[in-house]
Write a structure and sequence with these properties.
This protein has five helices and 36 strands. It is of the alpha+beta class and about 525 residues long. It is elongated and about 140 Å long.
């Protein structure tokens, strides 16, 4: 009996020691693995594993929603330290954050441990993709704003792409709205949106909506009005054209004064109005409208004046750097006429609008450019003749003018005579200046000699007598009276011999220069 009691005490002691040892077990953090997203209703498998398990007891793995630890999704008992497996049929409530809990089964003494949270997305397949417009599609004009909404009946985690006429416009991972602030005609076309769901790096789901046609009408410009005249067996008529440079058709044009109205599928239309030449006619204007506020053109006077009066022709030369005339430009103008048409003639032969050496310019051919080249036989008599553009039966002509390379590059006699006369006057003026300079220099040199001689005589008298005598008048007094007042005698008496010698040499040089100047201007 005593032995039996001892054995029971030993067993109880070992049990207590084992429980104390288990109480010291610290579990490692488990790792949860699985797909980041999956389609609703599909089967997916999640795995939870803990490395270096510090006990041989059964490990219990439990899968929870992180926001609701009371909601158990799955559990797994690992008897031999194997990895836990959680097969799941994906439901709506699986969407969110998943977490794995590891603990020792049937042992509350060991503290459980949780894995890091894992984000899992439940992809609800997209369906019912369609476009809603705001405002509701009606007549849209330039400058209006438009918002298109890519709406779906169901679907989660959807990416949206917008297309205009099958060209990608906008791609946003979350925004299903396309807004255009200021519409223009370039925004017209068929819009579609595509809803895409990415399952993994390779697979995805996408559905394209039906196309929505958007038409943006172009605002009209102010109408422009013009007219041309034509003639038929019944008389003369004005073909009045009313047009806009921009504006979406159909456009309704109305011509006032006649109250004619035409709806055109183009940006222009014409009205026929009978007229009488050279008589005052009424003014007309047109109005255009394509659905917005009508716009009116300026007023147009339908009075038509026939061609007549004096015809003048102007010539302008184009010259090279060496003054050679390279080409000429002729301009013709008639005194009166509303619709003049000009024709050009060389030696009474009509010239075409463009040729090897000429071309006309301006809409009514009133200008003619002629290239002057000795190799072309384009010299001769030129003139212009003016007709009514709507009736070429009668016309008026300009005076003729002779144009050729030789004539225009010949120096005129008047110009040559003028240049020769001016050159001769220049030569005579230079010669006169030279002669005057030589004579004046000789006279100044002679006056200088007399002045020095007087200074010398004055100095000699002062040395001999010691008194200043009055200077007697000589034949050279006319040179001395004005000059003596400003001369300082002391500055000239330092070296009389040198001064006299210098003045004599200067006089000789002056005479030599005089001879040289005359030799140079010997014509």
């Amino acid at each position: 009996m005593a032995k039996m009691t001892f054995f029971l005490l030993v067993v109880l002691g070992f049990s207590a020691m084992w429980q104390a040892a288990d109480a010291q077990i610290i579990l490692n953090e488990p790792v949860l693995n699985g797909p980041p997203r999956s389609v609703l209703g599909s089967i997916e498998v999640f795995f939870c594993k803990m490395d270096n398990i510090p006990t041989s007891q059964t490990i219990l793995y439990e899968l929870y929603k992180d926001d609701d630890h009371d909601k158990l999704i799955g559990e797994y008992s690992s008897l031999h330290k194997e990895e836990a497996i959680f097969p799941l049929m994906i439901k709506h409530d699986h969407d969110g954050i998943l977490i794995c809990k590891a603990s020792v089964q049937n042992n509350s003494e060991v503290v459980p441990i949780f894995s890091k949270p894992m984000v899992f997305q439940v992809v609800v397949p997209v369906d019912g993709v369609h476009i809603i417009s705001s405002p509701f599609l009606k007549t849209l004009w330039e400058g209006d704003s438009l918002t298109l909404l890519c709406n779906i009946s169901q679907g989660t985690y959807v990416l949206y792409s917008w297309f205009l006429n099958n060209t990608l416009l906008h791609n946003d991972s979350s925004n299903n709205r396309l807004t255009i602030r200021h519409l223009s005609s370039q925004n017209s076309g068929t819009y579609t949106c595509r809803a895409t769901q990415e399952l993994n790096e390779i697979d995805s789901l996408s559905i394209m909506s039906k196309g929505m046609n958007v038409s943006v009408k172009e605002n009209m410009s102010k109408p422009e009005i013009s007219f041309k005249v034509f003639k038929d067996v019944e008389g003369y008529f004005a073909n009045v054209t009313c047009q806009v440079t921009k504006g979406s058709p159909p456009i309704n044009f109305t011509l006032f004064k006649t109250n004619d109205s035409v709806t055109s599928q183009f940006q222009y239309t014409s009205f026929v109005v009978p007229i009488v030449l050279d008589q005052k006619m009424d003014t007309v204007h047109c109005q255009a409208s394509n659905g917005k506020t009508p716009l009116q053109s300026r007023e147009l006077n339908l009075t038509v004046e026939s061609v007549g009066g004096t015809v003048t022709m102007k010539l302008e030369k184009f010259v090279r750097k060496n003054f050679e005339v390279l080409a000429v430009e002729l301009s013709c103008h008639v005194e009166r006429g509303t619709f003049p048409q000009y024709n050009w003639f060389l030696n009474n032969t009509r010239l075409e609008s463009q040729g090897p050496f000429h071309r006309t310019f301006h809409a009514n051919n009133s200008g003619l450019m002629v290239k002057l080249d000795p190799h072309y036989t384009n010299g001769g008599v030129y003139h212009c003749k003016v007709f009514n553009s709507f009736d070429s039966t009668t016309g008026v002509s300009s005076p003729v003018t002779l144009i050729s390379h030789e004539v225009l590059n010949k120096i005129p006699t008047e110009v040559a005579a003028t240049v020769f006369t001016l050159f001769s006057l220049l030569i005579f003026a230079v010669l006169a200046c030279c002669i005057y300079g030589v004579v004046l220099r000789k006279r100044q040199a002679r006056k200088y000699i007399f002045r020095v001689k007087d200074f010398t005589d004055m100095h000699g008298i002062g040395d001999d007598d010691g008194v200043e005598d009055e200077i007697q008048e000589t034949e050279e007094d006319e040179y001395k009276e004005e000059e003596y007042d400003d001369l300082d005698i002391e500055a000239y008496i330092e070296d009389q011999d040198i001064l006299q010698t210098t003045m004599i040499e200067d006089s000789d040089e002056s005479e030599g220069e005089e001879e040289t100047d005359f030799n140079n201007y010997n014509f």
